[in-house]
Amino acid sequence: MSNTDKSQQLFDDQYSLAAHRVRLYMVRHGQQETAGNDDGGPGLTALGKKQARALADRLKHISFRKAYISPMARAVQTAEPLLEKLDGIDTETTPDLREVAREHMLIHLNSAARDIRQNLEHERDTLHRFVNRVRHNHDAGEQVLIVAHGNIIRTLIPLFGTREPADSILMELCHASLCIVDLWPISGRAVLILGNCTRHLEDKQVTL
Fold first, then answer.
1. Half-sphere exposure (CA, 13 Å, Cβ side) for 166?
2. Residue 90: what are its φ and ψ, rounded to 5°?
3. Tens of pLDDT along 125-180?
4. Residue pLDDT, tens place only, 77-118
5. pLDDT above 70 (res 14)
6. Distance between CA atoms of residues 90 and 169, nearest Å
7. Which residues span the domain enclosing 71?
8. Which phi and psi (to 5°) does residue 177 adopt?
9. Is 2 part of any domain?
10. Is 135 a domain residue?
11. d(Cα 185, Cα 190) in Å, to the nearest integer?
């Protein structure tokens, strides 16, 4: 096979893969207040709201099939500016995306203390249920928005790729940052295309 034929084959393979993938846009919430008054937790600071508006301007032209939003106030408020621009997108606020413990990225379940292990098992079951739901409910070519929390996104990325979070690199995520994962629901393959991107924010707006 000539180099030209090899290049064409590579292009065809990549095009075929792209045609069969679901693209997930995962967003961490904006900067939050230090305390909240109810179960919804703290809302966004003034800077957090600016971060959310900048994110909305970046993603407003994406044709999302559906948005999944954590019920926590900081995630809901982060999603609001974008949802207003998208106008009519199918949206689900789901408790499956509530904040989870950082230990998912640090320890294996069988090495955790009993009380921690029970909590992690419950959270892991919830996230596995969400991952399976996304795999089964979305078709090739669709684009999906997920607005959640840093620990949720750090845990979801390896789970979508059928890997244990504790075996994966611990990635820091800035407020209102964007991660993009391409997912092939049938094969179970997933590829991290973009991680912790803050290109839509000014330097002074980037926070952890």
1. 12
2. -65, 120
3. 899 999 999 999 999 999 999 999 999 999 999 999 999 888 888 889 999 999 99
4. 999 999 999 988 999 999 999 987 777 766 676 776 777 778
5. no
6. 32
7. 21-205
8. -80, 165
9. no
10. yes
11. 8
Strand duo 143-148 + 66-69: pairing:
parallel
Mean pLDDT, rounded, for 171-192: 93
Q: How many residues make up the chain in this entry?
A: 208
The answer as to whether 6 is a domain residue is no
| Secondary structure class of 200 (helix, strand, coil) | coil
Q: Which of 109, 112, 123, 106 is nearest to 168 (CA)?
A: 106
DSSP string for residues in 144-186: EEEEE-HHHHHHHHHHHTT--GGGS------TT-EEEEEEETT
DSSP state of 21: P
| Structure-model confidence comparison of residues 10 and 155, the more confident one | 155
Convert 142-178 to b/e letters by CB count within 10 Å (16 or more is b).
bbbbbbbbbbbbbbbbbbbbeeebbebeeeebbbbbb
Q: Residue 11 domain-assigned?
A: no
Higher pLDDT, 38 or 57: 57
Count the domains in the chain. Answer: 1
Edge to edge, what strands does the sheet with 91-93 contain? 91-93, 66-69, 143-148, 22-28, 178-184, 189-197
Say what the pTM is.
0.89
Contacts of 194 (CB under 8 A, 6+ apart): 178, 179, 180
- Which CATH number is 37's domain given? 3.40.50.1240
Residue reference for tokens 């079951």: 125
